[in-house]
């Protein structure tokens, strides 16, 4: 279970991300806040979500991304039963509605 302190920290983190104005600021923030491996893992999950959303089969996703079946399954579960975060981002990216590049 998440503690109140952890909840407060997450809210602050989300607000920090929303405060970023462009891709360069976002890159700098993530360069500081995460290891390259953590950032690569997050970006790989988004790519897995994009491919799943397009209807790509698990084996092709694994081949294209190197993601494990466990990661692909977890992302698929989030796409199907999650809060809708992946879908929101994927829809906005497809429509070119990301913040200024």
Shape descriptor reads: globular
| End-to-end CA span | 37 Å
Spans of at least 5 consecutive residues with low confidence? none
* Average pLDDT reading: 94
CATH topology of the largest domain: Trp Operon Repressor, Chain A
What Rg, in angstroms, do the CA atoms define? 15 Å
Structural class of the helices, strands and pairings? mainly alpha
The main β sheet shows up as:
none
CATH homologous superfamily placement of the largest domain: TrpR-like
Provide structural commentary.
Helix content is 75%, strand content 0%. The protein contains 6 helices and no strands. The radius of gyration is 15 Å and the shape is globular. The mean pLDDT is 94.
């Amino acid at each position: 279970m998440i503690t109140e302190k952890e909840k407060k920290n997450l809210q602050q983190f989300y607000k920090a991300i929303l405060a970023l104005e462009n891709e360069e600021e976002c890159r700098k923030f993530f360069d500081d806040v995460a290891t390259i491996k953590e950032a690569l893992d997050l970006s790989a999950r988004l790519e897995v979500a994009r491919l799943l959303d397009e209807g790509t089969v698990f084996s092709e996703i694994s081949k294209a991304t190197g993601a494990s079946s466990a990661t692909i399954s977890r992302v698929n579960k989030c796409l199907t039963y999650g809060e809708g975060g992946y879908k929101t981002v994927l829809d906005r990216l497809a429509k070119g509605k990301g913040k200024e590049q």
